[in-house]
Amino acid sequence: MGARELKDNTTVFAGVGAPMMASGLAQRMHAPGLTMVIEGGIVGPKWKPGSLPISTNEMRAAYRAQMLPGITDAFLLAQRGFLDVGFIGGAQIDRYGNLNTSAIGGSYDRPKVRLPGTGGANDIISLCRAVIILTVHEKRRFSETVDFITSPGWLTGGDSRRASGLLFGGVSRVVTTLGLFGFEPESRRMRLEALHPGVSVDDVKAATGFEVLVADQLTTTKPPSDEEFGILRMLDPARQFL
Amino acid sequence: MTISRREYDFQAARLRLEAKPKSAGEKLTTLDEAVARVKDGDSLAFGGCLFSRTPLALIRALLRRRPTGLTISRNLMCYEGEWCIVAGAVDKVVTSWMGIGLPWGLSKIVREYVESGRVPMEEWSHLALGLRFRAAAMGVPFLPSLTMLGSGLVDVGGSKTIDCPYTGQKLLAVPALFPDVAMLHVHRADRFGNCQIDGYPHMDADIAKAAATVLVTAEEIVPEEEIRLHPDRTVIPGFIVDALVHVPYGSYPHECYGLYDAEPEHFSVYVDGINQRGAAGVQDYLERYVYRPRTHADYLALFAEAALADASRRGRELVT
Fold first, then answer.
1. What are the E-state strand segments in chain B?
2. B144 in contact with A at a CB cutoff of 8 Å?
3. Which of these, A18, A166, A192, B1, could form a disulfide with B158 (CB 3.0-4.6 Å)?
4. Is the pTM of this model over 0.95?
5. pLDDT-derived band of residue B1, with 50, 70 and 90 as boundaries?
6. Which positions 113-132 of B are in contact with A (Cβ < 8 Å)?
7. Using 50, 70 and 90 to split pLDDT, how confident is the model at B157?
């Protein structure tokens, strides 16, 4: 689903796992002119099928890359505006697409669960032109409020993101295990736009901790084709990420 | 607010450099002599990133001296950060992310020490931490950036915003981070400390320029002529390096681009120890791999020769 959002002749900031698979798939399907930038400081890698990296900073992630500018300079490409799409995920997400990957419960300094931290997620959501959130759809993740804003989505909606100093970009899509969401143009609240086959609006409501808005034109997503599945299996035969 | 004036005081950092000899002479020394330059309470920046080109030999030599009160910084902190925490060496961790990697899950050591408030973890985005080192490398107190605005990260680090003097736009003023000591592992250097790195540059060159004291280990010490034939490859000039040690496999079992691959099985055994015994699992590991081996050769002897050869084969395979 993430792959279909990637247009030809664009650039994508991708991390390991699903974003990497989606980018690899898009390049082989409809977007041969897609360039990947990887947060370990890598431009244009050509990963070896069956030998995918488990971190964005290990040698495998740079396999047959075009350039290794380093981490700071890779993110400066995003700040300059060279990155069209970024992918991120998170442990908690609210209706405005704000994400928490830092700390759950308690206070930030004495949390109930300390998560690994932002890594490059905050930079990606702050600096790319459009951001796609990929996540498992569960009630504990889709929360009324996030305990901490690691990665700012539309903040409190309206023009609050812009007012905070984030002049560019924003979250455009949330792709979950149940369906596909966009954001209302004015309020910037998350809105269900498509359901995966066999999923109902009630299923989504039951797995969401905030009010689920539904688009007038609710559609059904097209499941991956045999060809798409074939490419994904070729990229990841050991099913490390599939 | 956890950043202190010492971290971004560019005038004090400049005066330290002005008072220091910038020698073009020999830098070669031993691991023990190199890490003797670290004082309790110092702020350290580690080069490399996650399990790539980590200066592990320097960190092991440092921990054998049982230091205390250190601040350690690195954008992706791997298990060397856990070692320092469990060894009681650390007062503060500055990072953007800490763990080993997705397959190994959340760091139980981070959870135990940070959730209880014993060790604060100061969190910056990759770009922000990169710009902290770059600001210091440039000798300025901050750099303007468009990242992190609107997020909780601005408040917890204590960073400030400024109004752009030209456009009036709000910008994040990312504070410089001038560490006392940089610890780096590079591919090759001549005996004067002119360093060349293959593959990922990570943040090493900025960290070297940001720090007051620079300690380097190199896989290979090459003749001066080899550096002079390819000066475009030199990323750290010798006059900013204080100590250089020849340490082949200096970041093993982490990877060194083009020379040897990482050992994920070793990480799994390490994490199994933590899953079974918590922080005591790290103590066991430190005893075996850090405190007991007296020399780097003793350390490498803990790994089978075939394992080292295989790591080299896998490492070379990816760049040929």
1. 43-46, 70-73, 76-77, 90-95, 97-98, 121-123, 142-145, 160-163, 170-175, 181-189, 195-196, 213-221, 234-236, 243-246
2. no
3. B1
4. yes
5. low
6. 114-117, 120-121, 123-128, 130-131
7. confident
Residues 188-217, chain B, touching A (beta carbon < 8 A): 199-203, 206
Backbone angles phi and psi of B226, in degrees to 5: -65, -40
What are the beta bridge partners of residue A205?
A: none
Partner B, chain A 2-41, Cβ-Cβ below 8 Å: 16-17, 39-41
Letter for the amino acid at B259?
L
Element (H, E) at A168: none
B258 and chain A: CB distance < 8 Å anywhere?
A: yes
- Selecting from B96, B131, B152 the residue whose C-beta is nearest the C-beta of A119 gives B96
pLDDT at residue B224, as a whole number: 98
> Which of B97, B102, B201 is closest, CB to CB, to A70?
B201
Contacts with A58 from chain B: Cβ below 8 Å: 50-52, 255, 262
How many residue pairs from chains A and B have C-beta atoms closer than 8 A? 184
Distances (CA, A) of B133 to A174, B15, B186, B202: 34, 18, 18, 12
Q: What tens digit of pLDDT does each residue of B66-116 get? A: 999 999 999 999 999 999 999 999 999 999 999 998 899 999 999 999 999
- A133-152 mean pLDDT: 96
Residues in chain A: 242
Q: In the numeric block, which tokens belong to residue B9?
A: 């005081």
Kindly state whether A148 is in contact with chain B, defined as any CB-CB distance less than 8 angstroms.
Answer: yes
Note the pLDDT tens digit of each residue in B167-208: 999 999 999 999 999 999 999 999 999 999 999 999 999 999
A48-71: pLDDT as tens digits: 888 889 899 999 999 999 999 999
For residues A102-124, average pLDDT: 96
Q: Express each pLDDT in A2-21 by its tens digit.
A: 788 899 999 999 888 888 89
Q: Are A170 and A131 in contact, with CB atoms under 8 Å apart?
A: yes
Contact B251, B186 (CB under 8 A): no
**Is the separation of the CB atoms in A131 and A123 below 8 Å?**
no
- Cα of first residue to Cα of last residue in chain B, in angstroms, is 48
- A178-204: b or e for each residue (b if 16 or more CB lie within 10 Å)? bbbbbbeeeebbbbbbbbbeebeeeeb
Which residue in chain B is spatially nearest to A128 when comparing CA positions? B147
Classify B15 as helix, strand or coil. helix
